[in-house]
Structure to design on (396 residues):
């Protein structure tokens, strides 16, 4: 049992739903689909959509990330209970997604709101060019007052390069569109200091100012996994969202009108974001889930980076990975700690040739003139010393 005292500092006010302008709402399969009958819970959806319509009416832009395609499709295809093979779940997603999108469209139409379906794969959020396209489409839908209904494109996503969980997908969507709030509707009412089931000392945490290793530990642990419904991926999602400038809130979606319940004082956990949000570009860099390479830098280069300089080839001691110019790479210090992330200015083979060399020698080594920097300061996000991945520092 942890002895961490979790109180909300008086200076930090608990946010209110009404203060947010762009909200991503993640709806889990277990809320939408009746496990026994494999049908969509229409009444529950209608009540949630009423909550959403109220936010929409007040001028908030709402984006829904909805799970449930596989759960719905497997019923239609009459798959037996138990885990599915990859192709089976992809077939189930293909069948279920049609029904899922139709139900959302119908439920929103009651409030004269238009729905637009967007199916994303991992590379749509991780490759900057594709990410910009997806962001532009979502932005246009919001401008048109439509509500994007997003899911992972499970029927084409392959196992190695998929999210697999919509918590992290929703967090990436939130940072991608510059949302100020991510709501995870779940089957628990928030984070507890210990597994809530059967532990009389477990205390509900109303607000997390910063995701520390202690907070992460509360979410983990095999014994708690069942009763907390994947709290670990939710805290992972929290790290992505808060680093990108969005607050996150977890609440129990099993009640009717869960958002209404929170507005009326229902239990939830808020994860706050650092007050100075980073620029959109830096948000994307900081939240990259899969850096394609690692640059090991020397102490002098680290000091220069912390002063706001770009990373020069001379400061890179060695590098790993098969990356191309424009890919995200991780920057590590002498002890191997990740100190930041950035977009690399060179392909891996050329980067290896010029690593450790002075900028004026680049042309001679490569046979052509290249960029002076390995990672330009505008493409670099440094993590604060004690604050890995969370305290993203804006050094523009
Ligand atoms: N994308 C999956 C589906 O629609 C759900 C993933 C999740 O539940 O997190 O069925």
């Amino acid at each position: 049992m942890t002895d961490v005292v979790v109180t909300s500092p008086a200076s930090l006010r608990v946010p209110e739903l009404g203060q947010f302008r762009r909200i991503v709402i993640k709806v889990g399969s277990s809320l939408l689909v009746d496990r026994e009958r494999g049908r969509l819970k229409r009444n529950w959806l209608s009540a949630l959509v009423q909550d959403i319509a109220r936010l929409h009416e007040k001028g908030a832009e709402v984006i829904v990330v909805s799970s449930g395609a596989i759960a719905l499709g497997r019923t239609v295809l009459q798959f037996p209970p138990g885990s599915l093979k990859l192709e089976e779940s992809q077939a189930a997603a293909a069948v279920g997604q049609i029904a899922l999108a139709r139900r959302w469209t119908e439920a929103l139409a009651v409030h004269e709101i238009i729905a637009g379906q967007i199916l994303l794969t991992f590379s749509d959020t991780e490759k900057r060019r594709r990410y910009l396209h997806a962001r532009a489409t979502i932005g246009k839908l919001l401008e048109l007052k439509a509500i994007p209904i997003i899911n992972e494109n499970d029927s084409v996503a392959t196992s190695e390069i998929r999210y697999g969980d919509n918590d992290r997908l929703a967090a990436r969507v939130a940072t991608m569109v510059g949302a100020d709030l991510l709501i995870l509707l779940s089957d628990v009412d928030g984070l507890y200091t210990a597994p809530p089931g059967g532990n009389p000392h477990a205390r509900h945490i109303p607000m997390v100012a910063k995701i520390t290793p202690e907070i992460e530990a509360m979410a983990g642990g095999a014994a708690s996994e069942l009763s907390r419904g994947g709290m670990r991926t939710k805290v992972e999602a929290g790290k992505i969202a808060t680093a990108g400038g969005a607050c996150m809130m977890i609440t129990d979606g099993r009640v009717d009108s869960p958002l209404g319940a929170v507005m009326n004082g229902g239990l939830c956990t808020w994860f706050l974001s650092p007050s100075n949000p980073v620029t959109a570009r830096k948000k994307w860099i900081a939240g990259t889930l899969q850096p394609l390479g690692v640059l090991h830098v020397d102490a002098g280069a680290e000091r220069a980076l912390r002063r706001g300089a770009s990373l020069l080839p001379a400061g890179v001691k060695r590098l790993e990975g098969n990356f191309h110019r424009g890919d995200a790479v991780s920057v590590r210090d002498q002890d191997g700690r990740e100190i930041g992330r950035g977009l690399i200015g060179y392909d891996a083979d050329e980067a290896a040739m010029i690593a450790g060399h002075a900028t004026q020698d680049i042309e001679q080594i490569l046979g052509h003139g290249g960029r002076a920097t390995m990672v330009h300061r505008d493409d670099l996000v440094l993590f604060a010393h004690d604050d890995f991945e969370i305290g993203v520092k804006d050094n523009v």
Summary: Residues 28-29, 67-71, 93, 151-152, 154, 165-166 surround glutamic acid (CB under 6 Å).
